[in-house]
Amino acid sequence: MGDPVAVAPDTTPGNGGTAPGDAPPRRRLGDEPADPRRHDRALIAAYEAALAVASELDLEAVLQRIVDLARSVVPARYAALGVADARGALVQFVTAGLDAAERAAIGPLPKGHGLLGELIRDGEPLLISDIAADPRSVGFPPNHPPMRSLLGVPIRLRERVLGNLYLCERNDGAPFTSDDLTVVQTLALHAAAAIDRAHLYRQVEQGRARAEEQRDHLRVILDSLPSGVLIQTGEDEAVELANAAAVALLLGPDAPAGALPRDGRDYGLRQADGAPLAPEARPGRRALGGETVRNQQVVLERAGGERVPVLAQAAPLHDATGSVGGAVVVIQDVTRLREAEQLKDDFLSLISHEFRTPLTAIHGGAHLLARQGGDLDDATRDELLTDIVAESGRLDRMLTNLLELTAILAGRLVAATEPVLLEPLAREVAAEVAARAPGHRFVVAPAPGLPPAEGDPALLAQVLRNLYENAVKYAPDGGEVRTAATTDGQTVTLRVTDQGIGIAPEHVGAVFERFRRVGGDPTVRGMGLGLYLSRHLVEAQGGAIAAASPGIGRGATFAVTLPVARGWDPDGAKE
Ligand code: ADP
Question: How many angstroms is it from 346 CA to the middle of ligand 1?
Fold first, then answer.
């Protein structure tokens, strides 16, 4: 036997105390005379074991009690109980008949091979009168005192072997008997119940820890969702759980963390048009009635009166019996979405209107020419053709701006910068716009020795075109459109100044916003996109744009600043 089992002679009083030398004559199994006192002791031991299993929760203590009981009812020098894991390896080991020093000398857990391993592997009891003579024995480890007799039983529960319980060296030196075996088997049954209960308890504990961990994870996940998630139960749709987004949505952004919003007290629901919402139409109530709710538009009204448009989804939560135990409601603040839709609608009606005006002019002119072209005098025909060319050019520029804007918003616009000489570029664009603006005088007057800027010539030309066109549009009485250009050594700045209607100081900061048409003459046509686009085009080149005006009626100046061309050497230029 390879397990380090106890062999020290038992000197504890009351344990038989028969010296190994004076063994009584050996009896064969089954021959033992009935001993009524032993029978009672066995019954009492079984009762005590059952009591220990029922009243003691600590497995080690129960097993120790069972080992002690085994050794007291079957007088043996030594008793031990091993608990095996699912693979048969011993994981717990309790002994009786050994003091602490002896126990320490034996060392760690027995390996569970040899005869004792046999108990766990085969699940059959062993009654051996001479261990050394048994062919299954693998011998004793060093320091292991010799021993002869062994009574071992597996601890079984249904088909599974949970461990073993064994006694060594009957105190009277006689072999263990079948009566002994019956008693130890009964005790092993109680040990099985204790081990099984401990397993179950551990499983329940692990299950609970896992459930707690999953609940924590779920909480983190829920709180990081941008949508509000609620769990509602009962007749009154009480909120049982609300994630951070739901709390912020229902109670407002300053709500304390962990607050549970209450319907009717903290918030109410209305129909999308603001009319009262019937209780049975509420998403939570519908889901509690078993319905799955998709995309229900409602308006949330907080206790303070603020209203938030909300899109709600809801679904019933079924319990184990299949009945609806609650409802999960997901709510999403759609304020931004509504604003975006509104913006899109406004934008579409604006561009339809802006496109219609030149189209009408083109269509009308072309129609007239087609029908009565022959009857018209040369001057009228020229005028009509000039209008058609001008208006179609205008349409083309509007479309170019729109396409450019789409590219910017989609992140597709990449500026290809290179050294750009600003004066020729400004002259070229000014000439182009001046041709359509006979009442305006274009002057391009850069400071001498202006270094080239680092920019994208095509994008820059478009910015200048927008600025020049505005200078013409917003100076209906004509006048000068002056382009100045200066440098501070690091940057180059182009300033386009007109003598038009000017911009009120409170509006100067808003002219670069999308669709912003500030205080201008409503009869002047425009989409409010030219400057918004220009700002993006300039920024894409690494530059900046700013507006300034001394006031209404006093003209306006738009300044575009770009870096001086990379690698530009001012000293080299002077030479
Ligand atoms: P649009 O000209 O199509 O309205 P812009 O984005 O080009 O759009 O300009 C935005 C607004 O800035 C204009 O509606 C106008 O009120 C103001 N603005 C632009 N340029 C000038 C200017 N040169 N003088 C006065 N106001 C201007």
Answer: 18
In angstroms, the CA 180 to CA 169 distance is 12
> What is the 409 CA–ligand 1 centroid distance (Å)?
21
Percent of the chain as helix, strand, coil, to the nearest 5:
40, 25, 35
In CATH, what class is 418-574?
alpha beta
Does the CB atom of residue 530 touch ligand 1 within 6 A? yes
**Best substitution site from 355, 395, 470, 560 to test ligand 1's pocket, by max atoms within 8 Å of Cβ?**
470
526 CA closest ligand 1 atom index: 3
- CA distances in angstroms from 167 to 147, 153, 377, 447, listed in the order given: 11, 9, 132, 111
Q: What's the one-letter identity of residue 426? A: A
Q: What letter represents residue 564's amino acid?
A: V
Q: Please tell me the residue having the least CA distance from ligand 1 atom 12.
A: 511
Q: Ligand 1 centroid to 565 CA: how many Å?
A: 30
CATH class held by domain 338-409: mainly alpha
DSSP state for residue 100 in the 8-state scheme:
H
Q: From 3.40.50.360, 3.30.460.40, 3.30.450.20, 3.40.50.300, which CATH number describes the 225-333 domain? A: 3.30.450.20
Contact in structure between 166 and 151 (CB atoms under 8 Å): yes
Per-residue pLDDT of the chain (575 residues; tens, 9 = 90+): 444 333 333 333 333 333 334 444 444 444 455 566 777 888 888 899 999 988 888 999 999 999 999 999 998 999 999 999 988 888 999 999 887 777 777 666 666 667 777 888 888 899 998 888 888 877 766 666 667 889 999 999 988 899 999 999 998 888 899 989 999 999 999 999 999 999 999 999 999 999 999 999 999 999 999 999 999 999 889 999 999 999 999 999 888 877 899 888 899 999 999 999 999 999 999 999 999 999 999 999 999 899 999 999 999 999 999 999 999 999 999 999 988 888 788 778 877 877 888 899 899 999 999 998 788 899 999 999 998 998 898 899 888 888 888 888 788 888 899 999 999 999 999 999 999 899 999 999 999 999 999 999 999 999 999 999 999 999 999 999 999 999 999 999 999 999 999 999 999 988 998 776 666 566 667 777 889 989 999 999 999 999 999 999 999 999 999 999 998 877 765 54
Structure tokens at 398: 């509007």
Q: Sign of dihedral through CA atoms 242, 244, 246, 252?
A: positive
Do 351 and 402 form a contact (C-beta atoms < 8 A)?
Answer: yes
Residue bearing tokens 């995309």: 295
Atom of ligand 1 lying closest to residue 558 CA = 23
Domain map (residue ranges) of the chain: 36-203, 225-333, 338-409, 418-574
48 within ligand 1 shell (Cβ under 6 A): no
Compute the distance between CA of residue 263 and CA of residue 491 in angstroms, rounded to an integer.
60
Query: Is 36-203 a domain of CATH 3.40.50.620?
Result: no
